[in-house]
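dude i think i finally got it to work??
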Amino acid sequence: MGEWLLRLIGRLRGRRSGLMRIADAQPLGPGAAVYALDIDGRRILLGVTARTMRVLDRYPMPRPPAERERAASLAKDEEQADSG
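look at this
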């Protein structure tokens, strides 16, 4: 089961495929890896070996760095306006 997923992930890495995108992959050793999948606004961490797949964690997809910086700048401006 894990073998077909590894082939699929290899083809999809970094590409958009409908609602799913492979955001990152980290090999852990022969036949084992952790994948970060972005699916419909959520990030899913998936542990994969040659024999098994397991969801390790799920959470809302992180904002892109530029968006995080913009939000932090707006919050800082609001704080300064409130205190001034």
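The chain has a mean pLDDT of 78.
im so relieved honestly
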